[in-house]
Amino acid sequence: MADDGMLLNFELGDAPLTSQVKFKGGRWRDRVKAQNSVKRQQNPTAADDASRANKRQRTEDGPLMGGRDPKLARTANTSDRIPSQAMKTGQISSSLFTSNPTAVTSFDDAPAEEAEPAKPSNAPLTEEAENFLALGLSRRVAQHLATKLEMKAPTAIQKNTIPQLIKEDSDAFLQAETGSGKTLAYLLPIVHRIMALSLNEDGTPKETQVHRNSGLFAIILAPTRELCKQIATVLEKVLRCVPWLVCTTVIGGESKKSEKARIRKGVNILIATPGRLTDHLDNTKVLDVGTVRWLVLDEGDRMMEMGFEEDLRTIVTKIRADKLLKQNSEGVLLEDVLPSRRVTILCSATMKMDVQKLGEISLEDAVHITASKSEMEKDAAGGGTEAAFSAPSQLKQSVIITPAKLRLVTLIALLKSTFARKGSVMKAIIFISCADSVDYHFELLKSTAPPDPPNPEDPPVKPDIHTQTTVAPASYITSPANPTVVLHRLHGSLTQPVRTSTLNAFTVCKEPAVLITTDISSRGLDVPAVDLVIEYDPAFAVSDHVHRIGRTARAGRSGKAVLFLLPGCEEGYTSILSSSSPLISQLYESILQKGLATPVNLPSTTSATTNLETEKQTWTSRAEALQLHFEQRLLATTASGANANEASPTKPAKFSKGSQYNNARGKGKAEKPVESPLLISSRQAFRSHIRAYATHVREERGFFDITQLHLGHMAKSFGLREAPGGIGGGVSRRTHRPQSTQFRKSTGGGDGGGEKTGGVRRDHDDGDGIGAVDGTAMRRMREKMKNVMNAASEFNLG
């Protein structure tokens, strides 16, 4: 046979040829075990090394076996990753300072110090000629403001608004930065003109007097119940100089029957939420809007965001459709003093598309009023552009770049250093994205010690039943200078009496206080002496960020605002934040060094062996030990019956015999352990936080990319050792469906047991837990988070 010129030359090597075995059918775990068994038979040494490298031991309570982290045993050199002092404790579940992403922000260039402190941009005017009397208000009102309310000079927005609303009858759009006094800017002209029905210019009474039954003259709408209560409180203080005028509120969560009774008794100024006012306009016949001259829409942008557009359209249509009466039922002429038409006043700190849409619905030939005269003149000339409002100039803003694993201990260190000096900070507000996370952090930080017995010499004080579960003394963040710090929680899922009592308790608290809350407290609330605002979770939009930090530095006071961001894409979020003062970026290390320089005061009832009181410890070892303490506290199990009190973070609960889990023969089978409520709350808070993370506005999702979020690292910030499942399951609970022999794609329901993430069944050791940073794990997480985007529409921010 002739040679065709082709030569095949394969290098086979010295190793013997082995056939590739592929298993089909059966359970997935059985196929994996069989595949590994074949690999061990073919290459025993390499298979054993690979299995040992991939295996991670886990424990459910207490320190890890042998006092070392199995993950650290896989690394070649652990001495340069873990501080030596932290290694000596022998209680590290997984290191906080390894496998963290590197921040791209440069922290070397410190911002130049200001030559002089920034001049407050929302403070009252200081010129002697600027007073309320010169703006056209009656002497009675001006004297009341100066003597009783200690307000001698108006702010810039008040100076521009009050004369306009007193002399003119045109609609107005009030736009000014938060904390600048917009509430009094529209309240004082309304009170002045209603009071003129009863008093002459010289202050002498007229023959005809108006009272609470003389008619409803003004309606003020606000988005939240808390803001309605606050407006009513301010208005009641102003009305003390004219006690014959009456105001009231109609808001959701309260008795509609009592609201109807107050309306029937008579009211001159009504403050309401849109939904409840729409209900009364439809069903309360005694609510007559024929004499209404003013309709005020406070925080109009927020009302549009909350979905009140149809209610607002209905309210404006019904009020305009009712005939405007020239005199009331008692024959008092109204046209001579009150506006001859219905005046609509729209208030907002921003000029967004939804605000412009609300203006088209409610305003007619409106005057644009801002704090700056130049802006008003520019707008009147037709050359105005959208005003960019930022935080007050005296507000000092800073950004803390901290990895996900270190968020919780960094927050504790920040609060601890905040209350290290007496009188430096009296009140602080922590904004968190969702109600479940608010509840968890409140339970985690509150003191578990029994309350001190009352002093028999002190008069008895009746406890407030509404604040028993929302106000408590704090632990971890106290100091010798401030041994008592009062913790408060507030979100929309609480009942209205609880919300009102909690906010009032935070307002009148004389001790240092912390309010953990959602965005329900971000709009319009004026709590005195708030010195610090912490955005633990970034706002869902830049406009919400401006309102959040506006809770401090109000009316010329100084204040601080701190924003937590993750390294990576979130660092670019600072580029779209408008700030009149320098935005200072700092790394988490400086916060931990300052806050953990001294030992942390643990709750007195916990029996964890974590040593946080040793003076020789460094701030790194204290951070590790504090994180371990949180994890042990969550993993403490409880048992039913007599053994329930014997459980502790370091001493597992004993299980009794003869329980409902025993078999039919009654033999001694161990009782099923009961997870601690704090662990259950932590898992639910983690799930809600991830879902809330997916609800950022479309324009800002490039900075808050949920596919870049490391679930295992974020779970550490909730005190968890691994990310729980059921994230893509939505809010409702769904029953567990049996798994098939193949990988089963879930329809979005989670079993809540930590077995699935994003609807895909997974094993605990597939690299998706704590410390997994390889490309395969990141690719799996991106796939799993696709269902979270679908579940975000079901999420209720509370």
TrEMBL record:
Domain Helicase ATP-binding: where? 163-369
Q: Which GO terms describe its molecular function?
A: ATP binding; hydrolase activity; RNA binding; RNA helicase activity
Q: Where do Basic and acidic residues bias regions lie?
A: 49-61, 758-767
**Is Hydrolase there in the keyword field?**
yes
Location relative to the cell: Nucleus, Nucleolus
Annotated GO biological processes are: rRNA processing
InterPro entries listed in its UniProt record: DEAD/DEAH_box_helicase_dom, Helicase_ATP-bd, Helicase_C-like, P-loop_NTPase, SPB4-like_CTE
- Determine the domain of life of the protein's source: Eukaryota
Principal EC category: hydrolase
Q: Where is the Helicase C-terminal domain?
A: 407-608
What would be one Gene Ontology cellular-component term for the protein? nucleolus
Where are the residues of the annotated region Disordered?
Answer: 24-124, 639-676, 727-777
- Pfam families xref list: CTE_SPB4, DEAD, Helicase_C
Q: What is the reaction catalyzed?
A: ATP + H2O = ADP + phosphate + H(+)
Compositionally biased spans, kind Gly residues:
747-757
**Main location, first listed in the record:** nucleus
- By its UniProt entry, which SMART domains does this protein fall under? DEXDc, DUF4217, HELICc
Cite the record's Polar residues compositional bias ranges: 34-45, 75-105, 639-648
Q: Which residues cross the membrane?
A: none
Q: Which UniProt keywords apply?
A: ATP-binding, Helicase, Hydrolase, Nucleotide-binding, Nucleus, Ribosome biogenesis, RNA-binding, rRNA processing
Record-linked PANTHER family: RNA HELICASE
Family listed:
Belongs to the DEAD box helicase family.
Q: What domain comment accompanies this record?
A: The Q motif is unique to and characteristic of the DEAD box family of RNA helicases and controls ATP binding and hydrolysis.
What is the protein's given name?
Answer: ATP-dependent RNA helicase
Q: Which organism is it from?
A: Apodospora peruviana
Which taxonomic lineage does the organism of this UniProt entry have?
Eukaryota, Fungi, Dikarya, Ascomycota, Pezizomycotina
